[in-house]
Amino acid sequence: MRHLLGIDDLGGADGIDEVMRLTDSFVEVSERPIPRVPALRGKTVAWLFYEDSTRTRLSFETAAKRLSADTMNFSVSSSSVKKGESLRDTARTIEAMGIDAIVVRHASAGAPHRIAGWVDAAVVNAGDGWHEHPTQALLDTYTIRQRLGSLEGRHIAIIGDIKHSRVARSDVWAFTAMGAEVTLVAPPTLLPPSLEGWPVSVSHDLDGVLPTVDVAYLLRMQRERTSESLLPSLREYTATFGLTNRRVDLLSDDALVMHPGPMNRGVEIAADVADLPRSLILDQVRNGVAVRMAVLYLLLGANPDLVPPAPERVPAETADADAVDAGPERAEPTSKEAPVG
């Protein structure tokens, strides 16, 4: 894999499985007292973020540092972009400083693809317009797999502003590649103009779908990407498509709740529901670091001897309740080189 621009770059279920296996190893690294390995020592990763970000940017930065890579931060507000410098010139200028990978977030769909054609460094898409957000889909897949054991045969409802969501697009491709059934639940105005080729079913009846799902995946209203009036009001949206305190009782006892963040509590998800034991929202954030460690490692081709082997997983069907709550049992690290601080 040369770049990670979309889920298709992983080549289907086998490629996603490879990321999942590596992530198992890096979850173990993250649980150490000193969560660092020298796997990317001597490599430099730059952030090229043209949009605001908390989770994704900090997660990638933490991932690179835990792999012992050097990092280079780029701020649009204090850069030559404000003087009219083009995206191409900015990317090539950063590459000329001797970097190995560029992590890109941009408001325009396709921007990471253009950059990948201009530079020799590896490019990771950290979100481009309405297009894709592949590492979010990978961490979502890992989080479901961690709790349920497999996505095969699971029913996942993606609920909310599908039209403007790059997360929804990447999640659909990743979840279905791993054998899940996906239902999109939204008002007609918040669905894409065409769903041709999407391996999904569609519903406008959230109350009818919730009792059948293993995972309810909520999306926030992408108001920063919306120029038209798509809803009568947020109050009406919440009443019909929000996961309220009343509506969460429609879920089965073992159904899970997920959200990519940032949340609009009280709009797409009730404040109390976001904090229920069935909510995996903080698990998603936690797993995002290990998933992005795996992605950077795969792209930059470091020494496999410096990565601990993946711990043996406990199948969901045979694990007792305590084992499921605690996560898979972790193997002791066997890396020949001690982690560095």
Report on this model:
The strands form 2 sheets. Strands 7-6-5-8-9 form a 5-stranded parallel beta sheet, with helices on one face. Strands 2-1-3-4 form a 4-stranded parallel beta sheet, sandwiched between helices. The chain has 2 domains: 7-132 and 285-310, Aspartate/ornithine carbamoyltransferase (Rossmann fold), CATH 3.40.50; 134-283, Rossmann fold (3-Layer(aba) Sandwich). α2 crosses α10 (281-300), α5 crosses α6 (166-177) and α5 crosses α10. The protein has 341 residues and is an alpha/beta fold. The protein contains 11 helices and 9 strands.
In brief:
This protein is α/β, with parallel strands linked by helices.
- How is the largest sheet built, in terms of strand order? 7-6-5-8-9
CATH C-level category of the largest domain: Alpha Beta
Number of helices: 11
Q: Summarize the helix and strand pattern as letters.
A: HEHEHEHEHEHEEHEHEHHH
Total domains, how many? 2
CATH superfamily of the largest domain: Aspartate/ornithine carbamoyltransferase
CATH hierarchy: architecture of the largest domain = 3-Layer(aba) Sandwich
Any low-confidence stretches, pLDDT <50, length ≥5? 315-341
Span of the ends, CA to CA: 29 Å
Radius of gyration: 20 Å
What is the CATH third-level topology name of the largest domain?
Rossmann fold
Question: DSSP strand (E) fraction?
Answer: 5-15%
The chain-level mean pLDDT equals 89
- The percent of residues in helical segments reads 25-40%
Structural class: alpha/beta
Overall, the morphology is: globular
How many β-strands, per DSSP? 9
Largest sheet entry: 5 strands, parallel
